[in-house]
Amino acid sequence: MACSSSLLRLMILPVAFAVLVISSVAHGAVVEHTFNVGNLSISRLCQPEMIITAVNGQLPGPTINASEGDTVVVHLVNESPYNMTIHWHGVFQRGSQWADGPSMITQCPVGPSGNYTYRFNVTDQEGTLWWHAHISFLRATVYGAIVLNPRAGADAYPFPAKPDAEHVVLLGEWWNANVVDLERMAFLTGIPARNADAYTINGKPGDLYNCSAANQTEVFQVRRNETHLLRIINAALNTPLFVKVAGHGFTVVAVDASYATPYATDVVVIAPGQTVDALMVADANATASPGGRFYMAATPYDSAVPNGPAFSQTTATAVVEYVGEVDDTVPPVLPTRPDYNDTPTAHRFWSNLTALVLPGKPTVPLAVDTHMFVTVGLGVSECQPAQLLCNRSAPPVFSSSMNNASFVPPTSISMLEAHFNNASAGVYTRDFPDTPPVVFDYTGDESNNATMQFTTKSTKVKTLRYNETVEMVLQNTRLIAKESHPMHIHGLNFFVVAQGFGNYDEATATPMFNLVNPQERNTIAVPTGGWAVIRFVANNPGMWYMHCHFEAHLDLGLAMVFEVQDGPTPETSLPPPPADLPQC
After folding, report:
1. Distance (Å, rounded) from C-alpha 573 to C-alpha 576?
2. Distance (Å, rounded) from C-alpha 104 to C-alpha 85?
3. Which part of the chain is the Plastocyanin-like domain (predicted)?
């Protein structure tokens, strides 16, 4: 396979900072990394150097390259001043549930000067996933890609064209501030943290921002007529993004490490937590850019209606550069960008994706054991005792909930430990409701009143039998604002059988169900003021977090946990915790 120089930069840099050991084992190789989490001095956006938390002294962190069937071992060494956990977003963690990573769900955090070894396999998974901190707002700078190659190599890709080169495209957000302080103050006051100062591509904002030319703009080098596989990941904390490359189109071939029916588009729409694998042919009209350079642009999608929190109306850029055709005196061509609130374009992209059905791969379950109807949205609640700067004489503070249950993680023991020890009392309750407490006009303006907005804090789970099949309707509400929430489930993939706008109506929605080749995902952007229907099989015992991947909304309580019981065999049961599991 031919590789551009930018691809070499992306693939070699992580290995330079990580310990990488590959050795043969029965079912693949062992891919081993050491993640040293510590302080990094860095400058962005005309600001003096500031200290951020990063892995192995780089932003983004190292890319984990593995093949299907490999075992990944990551030694986390916490040299930062903060508690830390790492989540391996989209990895099933079958047999390695203790490695999933969300703080207080599957583990207590690793304290400063502490360490923990994450071990997991990537059997039956190919494509692009990613890893990130799963505590506070630290994933703003602690994140990186996971590239899972077919065991037989690139020739085994089920694509219409085999890629000549591959590029990781990590989208993010940047704050000229300490993100831990931002999150802490937001919690203490009950006032959401401010919006980001910039968007980034591979940690760089691009030259449309002040003081961001030269080494602050990522460059992807291509050769004319080559096919490039872009592994696009939205690692932003709170913002869905439109991605375009001037003069080029894409063919989407996978989402969330699940192969998709090839879908041609000139724009990729990607919510926080999602990944998109897209082929791009370097066949731009040479006269469109005499300088041989084309901007890749990432711009925000603001789905909130009537309005949401302030967001940065700016554009992150990288440059796609044609080798042998570059004239630095000619500026790159900028693509036409969608409007910030272009919901039709976002919905067209997300709803047109379908799965590429392959022999031996999972398909959508046709029989359903449990039906759930779950509202997702914002609201208000009373100040919590630990919110020491909350104005208790003022109206209630912002909150969020699923079926009016606003989630609070435990503080003394992780939920997985409590589950394993049969000691749930005082940690969580098994009463997450299958339906909202009241039926109302979920998307109607008249429903947005103080009574309907109010929610209470709790730690509720939904208990499922091993192999139980679940159909869940996710219904966005008008409370505070309608908004597209990216809902992510740990430990499981699901199939998106239908989605639409307004209040879900079973009679009209059921005929729309795609039970042939629905897209398979781990993160679904529920349409703003609308609904999505997902199905999954609870075939992985453990405690699996389901939450909004807007970090601000997760902190407000937009989450719940599935407690999946053991199956009939040791292989289908939760194993004991590892000896080095961190303790609270």
Report:
1. 9
2. 10
3. 38-152, 166-324, 431-566
- The whole-angstrom separation of Cα 324 and Cα 332 is 15
d(CA 248, CA 280): 7
Q: Which residues, 6+ apart, have CB-to-CB distance to 72 below 8 Å? A: 30, 31, 32, 33, 64, 66, 88, 118, 119, 120, 121, 122
* AA identity, residue 523: T
Q: Three-state SS for 49?
A: coil
Q: How many residues does the chain have?
A: 584
- Please state, in angstroms and rounded to a whole number, the distance separating the CA atoms of residues 373 and 351: 20
Handedness of CA 73, 78, 80, 81 (dihedral sign): positive
In order along its 584 residues, the chain shows pLDDT tens digits of 333 333 333 333 333 333 333 333 336 899 999 999 999 999 999 998 999 999 999 999 999 999 999 999 999 999 999 999 999 999 999 999 999 999 999 999 999 999 999 999 999 999 999 999 999 999 999 999 999 999 987 679 999 889 999 999 999 999 999 999 999 999 999 999 999 999 999 999 999 999 887 789 999 999 999 999 999 999 999 999 999 999 999 999 999 999 999 999 999 999 999 999 999 999 998 787 789 999 999 999 999 998 777 788 999 999 999 999 999 899 999 999 999 999 999 999 999 999 999 999 999 999 999 999 999 999 999 999 999 999 888 878 999 999 999 999 999 999 999 999 999 999 999 999 999 999 999 999 999 999 999 999 999 999 999 999 999 999 999 999 999 999 999 999 999 999 999 999 999 999 999 999 999 999 999 999 999 999 999 999 999 999 999 999 999 999 999 999 999 999 999 999 999 999 99
State the Cα–Cα distance between residues 243 and 158, nearest whole angstrom: 24
The bridge status of strand 519-521 relative to strand 542-548 is: unpaired
Using the structure block, give the residue that is written with the tokens 């992209």.
349
Q: How far apart are CA 115 and CA 107, in angstroms?
A: 13
What lies within 8 Å, CB to CB, of 531 at 6+ separation is 473, 474, 475, 476, 499, 500, 501, 502, 503, 504, 509
Q: What is d(CA 406, CA 384) in angstroms, rounded to the nearest whole number?
A: 12
Q: Using CA atoms, how far apart are residues 105 and 230, in angstroms rounded to an integer?
A: 33
Long-range pairs for 357-365: beta carbons < 8 A, 24 or more residues apart: 357/516, 357/517, 358/158, 358/259, 362/493, 362/520, 362/537, 364/495, 364/497, 364/514, 364/515, 364/516, 364/518, 364/535, 365/469, 365/495, 365/535, 365/536, 365/537
Q: How many CB atoms lie within 10 A of CB 200?
A: 28
Give the burial string for 493-504 (b: 16+ CB within 10 Å, else e).
bbbbbbbbebbb
pTM above 0.90, yes or no: yes
Domains of the chain: 28-156 (2.60.40.420), 159-353 (2.60.40.420), 370-572 (2.60.40.420)
- Interatomic CA distance for residues 399 and 555, integer angstroms: 8
